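Predict structure. Chain length: 80.
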Amino acid sequence: MFELLLRGLAVLAEIVLELVFGYLFYASGWLVLRLLTLGRYPRLPLNVSDPMDSRSSWITAFGALCVVGMPLTVLLFLYG
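Prediction complete.
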């Protein structure tokens, strides 16, 4: 019984984290790309139904790079 409860919580946590991080990374990647390209790309809207779709996954990956990679790079250069 306890094992079943833990599995259910793990699946729920995985779904919530996938949604939160997927939309967070997509939105940040979309915004940074719009700023860098002066509003030309990406041509996809900010609100998409699936941020891990084949058309929008590169935007999500770029957002993850910006949200995670850039602060780590700054910390490495400042304190490394």
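Summary: The longest helix spans residues 2-36.
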